[in-house]
Amino acid sequence: MYAVPGSGWPGDLATPRTPVAADAADVGRLAASARDLRQLDARVTVCRACPRLVAWREQVADVKRRAFADEPYWGRPVSGFGPPDPRILILGLAPAAHGANRTGRMFTGDRSGDWLYAALYRVGLANRPTAVSAGDGLELNGVRITAPVHCAPPANKPTTVERDTCRGWLTRELELLWPGVRAVVVLGAFGWNSLWPTLRACGIVTPARVPRFAHGVEAQVDGRLAIGSYHVSQQNTFTGRLTEPMLDAVLARAADAAGLPVR
Question: Which of 56, 95, 113, 233 is the most buried (most CB within 10 A)?
Answer without folding.
Answer: 95
